[in-house]
Amino acid sequence: MKLSDCTLLWNREVSPGYYHMGLEAPERYNDAMPGQFVMLKAERGGTLLRRPFSIHDVTQRDGKTIVVLLYKVVGANTRVYGGMKEGEVLSMLGPLGNRFTEPEAGESTFLAGGGIGIAPMLLLARRMVAGGAKPADHTVFIGGRTQDDVLAEGAFRALGFPVVVTTDDGSAGEKGRITEPMARLLEEKSPSKVYACGPHPMLVGVARLMEGHSALCELSLETIMACGMGACMGCVVESSDTDQPYRHVCIDGPVFDARTITV
Q1: At how many degrees (to 10) do helices 179-186 and 200-210 cross?
Q2: CA distance 227 to 50
Q3: From residue 93, how far is each of 29, 214, 248, 253 by CA, in Å?
Q4: Domains of the chain by start residue, with CATH
Q5: Alpha-helical runs (H) found in the chain
Q6: Is the pLDDT of residue 50 over 90?
Q7: Structure confidence at residue 238 (pLDDT)
Q8: CA–CA gap between residue 102 and residue 99 (Å, rounded)
Q9: In a 3-state reduction of DSSP, which class is residue 198?
Q10: 102-131 pLDDT tens trace
Q11: Are strands 109-114 and 193-197 parallel, antiparallel or unpaired?
């Protein structure tokens, strides 16, 4: 974990209010693990404290290591980020946090992301493929309120993953909650691992859906953080372990076995 000044290579609006950002980063980010995040701060404007962003992807271009972030403009910091141009500099702390447990050879998985919660799933999918996984053995579920909230669908399809889309209003894919097609597919397949990231109600739904199933269900929690290193106590969640009743999302997570926390 180190602090670095990173140059902005691109910053594109990919859907209303959602941006795809590429940052030139140190080589150590080539070893970033699926599920990890960074704490970001603009050198100009924004707020005093950093904000957390899941690592969406890590690529190489012209000898450069590029960290890709997918984010939504929701507050003072992200409004500043949304207006930044190529060549500007951001201060990035990371990589931080733990990782998803990647599947073993021959295992099948579900990857579920609601809205901006799809962000950490692309690096996971890419690393799975690099490790020899067959995309057809896995299923990606992308949910959103409307079609504007359905993100990164093309990137997963380009990797060969089957993709199921749901929206609350039916403007894209199937109308309804993301857990509905997941429940149907559970009757046909027995995934070894299920990964989910998204709004709290979605994570509750996924955790409940997987109760009684043998699959490992890992949830990546979205929460406000001030430091990203366990010092501020701002990202505490309840644990199911009576010996350790609380966990820090930043240093114990952000990825948790659904059975170990109270969602």
Answers
A1: 10
A2: 7
A3: 11, 36, 17, 16
A4: 2-96 (2.40.30.10), 109-222 (3.40.50.80)
A5: 76-82, 119-130, 153-159, 179-186, 200-210, 249-252
A6: no
A7: 83
A8: 9
A9: coil
A10: 999 899 999 999 999 999 999 999 999 999
A11: parallel
DSSP structural state of residue 163? E
Report d(CA 172, CA 230) in Å as an integer.
Answer: 39
CA-to-CA distance for 140 and 125, rounded, in angstroms?
Answer: 9
Strand bridging mode 174-175 / 89-96: unpaired
Nearest CA among 41, 75, 36 for reference residue 54: 36
> Are 136 and 125 spatial neighbours (Cβ–Cβ below 8 Å)?
no
What is the model's pLDDT at position 1?
61
Strand 236-238 to 174-175 pairing: unpaired
How many whole angstroms separate alpha carbon 182 and alpha carbon 189?
10
Tokens of 33: 């693990």
Question: Are 66 and 22 spatial neighbours (Cβ–Cβ below 8 Å)?
Answer: yes
Integer CA distances (angstroms), 53 to 78, 87, 191, 236, in order:
11, 20, 28, 17
Q: Which residue has the tokens 């609601």?
A: 114
pLDDT for res 245? 80
Q: Is the pLDDT of residue 233 over 80?
A: no
Residue type (1 letter), 253: G
Rounded Cα distance between 195 and 134, Å, is 17
Say if residues 87 and 24 touch (Cβ distance below 8 Å): no
Percent of all residues in the chain with a pLDDT value above 90, rounded to a whole number? 79
Instruction: Provide the b/e sequence for 170-208 (b: ≥16 CB within 10 Å).
Output: eebbeeebbbbbbeeebeeeebbbbbbbbeeebbebbbe
